[in-house]
Specification:
The structure is a homodimer. The C terminus of chain A is likely disordered. Chain A contains 8 helices and 8 strands. In chain A, helix 1 packs parallel to helix 7. In chain A, strand 3, helix 4 and strand 4 form a beta-alpha-beta unit. The relative contact order of chain A is 0.14. In chain A, strands 1, 2, 3, 4, 5 and 6 form a 6-stranded parallel beta sheet that branches. Chain A is α/β, with parallel strands linked by helices. Chain A has one domain: Rossmann fold, CATH 3.40.50.
């Protein structure tokens, strides 16, 4: 199988870099083909700008979704973006690997998403009407592929627990797991998280390495998060609100979008 | 009073740019001083890198928090970062104004946070011990100031409703409102959101303008979101988990971090 790892860390000797090496080694031992987009090493430009859209006329307003759609449909996006889209099409699994900065992706990775997840490829896919609102949330260009987040935090595991002050890690990562990866069609594996990364000692690494190798071995077989699909009857269309019969009475929030009785309803960490 | 607006949009003729003009005009009419950090116009560099830390030796590993702390403490961060920190210290209110891209900030704004929210200024502030875990979540360098998000979405309001497939807007913005603005001490106003931005007509703008002017008039008087403070007894220290007596039984997730019986427990949109 084919695996692309979108990797983000500014220090080539970081914990994250060591973890990346473990992932690549294990995946290759398993016979998979691996491509790494090492965004810092590539000096990837993360800023959406007019120059992303060569077809845009000098006096034309930049409406990003529209320019992206036109550029993608006619293969007139920039070479760096086209190369990343080609990797995603090639991949059977897509891993986002990054340190959690301010409870989200570092800017260079966020901008990779902003630029590479083009309109017509990652959003604006399929029929949009009163009867259907796109191929998304379980359908779309990444359908049939798997997605996964690998991340590290400076903060304590307890701070990300169900009652932790940061909010639960499942909820912190929902905008990525559910709203980026699952949105575009990927089946999403539970995240792999290393907490208190700045406080680790060298002797802690073998445990991390073992756990990572196990997760890489399960990349194509482990159960994925049981998110509800948009277009299989759970949601009213086009409002995309969960049907009133579903979910616990009075419930709201991210956990509504897990299937009822899903094991993923239980708090889950790294 | 002093207001800084950190503004993000690549098109100077965008809806967001028009909204910015309204905000600035109203704030000035009210007698406030306003500084705008227009990140695209400034060509702001959003990528944390070695060059951010002039004190770092060529053979020294880049540990971001440590380098940031050393640089901030000795006023050895780059000029662009120091200038933004100075604006934040000057401000009585800080507004993040951006289009919501992939359920979060555009990369150029995310990187502004990554770079400007330095260690010792925005995090790593105060005593860290078994008895106290920093001045944060209601305390910190931005204590006494107000924070607010102004944003626009391509998606429908219903898609961000309590049962909407994207998740509720309050939860989508929690990593920013609670974990960036409140974390650093600011009291956070409810967000101002314009949905379905690409489908608006020119005739829709006066309603947006009126609502924005009203919100600007209330910037220093409107009730803020009733988040629980970390260091006033609601949380166990240093685990920073909400004390078991607080919150609804069995509850977890972001809404736990609102005070019991807070009006903000109710679903709330734009």
């Amino acid at each position: 199988m084919n695996v692309v790892i979108v990797f983000t860390h500014p220090d080539p000797h970081s914990l994250n870099a060591s973890m990346l090496n473990v992932c690549v080694d294990e995946l290759k031992q398993l016979g998979h083909a691996v491509q790494v987009s090492d965004l810092y090493a590539m000096n990837f430009n993360p800023v959406v700008a007019r120059s992303d859209f060569p077809l845009l006329q000098p006096d034309e307003r930049l409406k990003v979704a529209q320019a992206s759609k036109t550029g993608y449909a006619s293969s007139n996006l920039t070479d760096d973006v086209q190369a990343e889209i080609a990797k995603l099409k090639w991949a059977d699994a897509i891993i986002f690997h990054f340190p959690l900065w301010w409870y989200s992706m570092p800017a260079i990775l966020k901008g990779w998403v902003d630029r590479v997840f083009a309109c017509g490829f990652a959003y604006g896919v399929g029929e949009h009407s009163d009867a259907k609102w796109g191929d998304r949330f379980g359908g779309g260009s990444l359908a049939g592929k798997r997605g996964m987040v690998i991340t590290t935090t400076g903060g304590w595991k307890e701070h990300y627990s169900p009652r932790g002050i940061n909010g639960p890690m499942d909820d912190i990562l929902f905008p990525i797991n559910h709203n980026v990866l699952f949105y575009t069609g990927a089946a999403v594996l539970p995240q792999f998280v290393v907490h208190s990364a700045d406080r680790l000692q060298m002797g802690d690494f073998p445990v991390i390495e073992d756990a990572l190798r196990t997760r890489m071995r399960g990349l194509f077989t482990d159960p994925t998060i049981a998110y509800r699909q948009q277009n299989t009857g759970d949601y009213d269309i086009p409002s995309c609100e969960l049907r009133t019969a579903l979910g616990a009475p009075g419930a709201s929030g991210f956990s509504l979008h897990l299937k009822d009785n899903s094991p993923d309803k239980a708090p889950r960490f790294d």
